[in-house]
Amino acid sequence: MSDTTINTEELGEKIVRVIKTIYDPEIPVDIYELGLIYDVFVNEDYDTKVLMTLTTPNCPVAETLPLEVEEKIKSIKGVNDCEVEITFDPPWSQDLMSEEAKLELGML
């Protein structure tokens, strides 16, 4: 593997770091720790796909949050393209939150 080759696993970690800079406007915790990101896929062409959910189907940021995720991921050096898919299966619940998020919100 040459120095210019990007490891898809490394790229996946960069994507997660970028996702952790995106916050739900109503909850002071990033969307990764909130458990809104179900999966991040990176293929050999460095196309990425993010499977995510929202806290509720009528979430006030339902239009803007997926776009923000897509734009921020597309700005990562090495990412070719990004598609964000929203799903409500399974629906989001507080059980999906990380310990860190629960602690931040005083739930522990």
Automatic annotation (TrEMBL):
SUPFAM superfamilies assigned to the protein according to its UniProt record, in alphabetical order: Fe-S cluster assembly (FSCA) domain-like
Domain MIP18 family-like, chain residue ranges per copy: 13-86
Annotated InterPro entries: Fe-S_Maturation_MIP18, FSCA_dom_sf, MIP18-like, SUF_FeS_clus_asmbl-assoc
Record's protein name: FeS assembly SUF system protein
